[in-house]
Amino acid sequence: MRGWWQEIVGxxxxxxxxxxxxxxxxxxxxxxxxxxxxxxxxxxAPEPAGLPVVHAAAPYENAVRAMLLAHKERGALGLxxxxxxxxxxxVRAGAGYPGERGPLLLVPVPSTRRATAGxxxxxxxxxxxxxxxxxxxxxxxxRVLAVLGQRRAVADQAGLGARERQAxxxxxxxxxxxxxxxxxxxxxxxVDDLLTTGASLAEAARAVxxxxxxxxxxxxxxxxxxxxxxxxxxxxxxxxxEGAPDGLRAAVVAASPSAFEINRY
Length: 265
Fold this sequence. Notes:
This protein is of the alpha/beta class. Helix content is 43%, strand content 15%. The chain contains 12 helices and 8 strands. It has helices at residues 2-12, 29-34, 62-73, 80-94, 113-119, 123-137, 162-169, 179-183, 199-211, 214-217, 220-231, 257-262; strands spanning 40-42, 53-59, 104-108, 142-144, 148-150, 173-175, 187-195, 249-255. The strands form 2 sheets. A 6-stranded mixed sheet has the order 1-2-8-7-3-4, with helices on both faces. The protein has a two-stranded antiparallel ribbon with strand order 5-6. The longest helix is centred in the N-terminal third of the chain and has 15 residues, at 80-94. The chain starts with a helix and ends with a helix.
């Protein structure tokens, strides 16, 4: 019945796949599968100071790029489910920790008020909500904490280089009043739809680290004990790599293809 209904709707209201443009479907099976083809660790080059360990579901190219733009800029809100599923896969890839460390707290990088008003929605928050629901369906306790906000106005990032983006965003984000208490209730994972230079996630990480003890907010009480054991010589090195001694993690739907290439070797 669903197939027949799609055929009828396609005849009356022209519909095309948001990824590849195939007619009579909002999203074809190939594009839906491609957005979560294989989440893995990604790094921009140069890597901004303070950037947490980041995992991405797919490279930002071809159908994935088209889908993200359709959701963000053209109001294709029906794509939030599949994009949220991809984000959930990236979260799992980088934050698969034991349940005793508390629920996963997905903290979306906020859009500016002007961008949200212009689009009529906050795309990252919408995708994060879908990702949290997908994680819960898979048995992982997760919820969205939209505790980050703009402390000052920032310029449009389009056309800015890596250093210009870092300067543009430096000190721009702040955790809302009451956020410190909420962030202490689980393991924080910063989430965004896209990673290019990493400036947005690095600034979000700075704001989170500024308001609370690293062991409590980024890693949770159990991880704090593990960190203490490691420093005493009873544990191993964190496999997160450089730039994330606190265990803070981040996940995105897509990252620039070059970030995937860096991590291929």
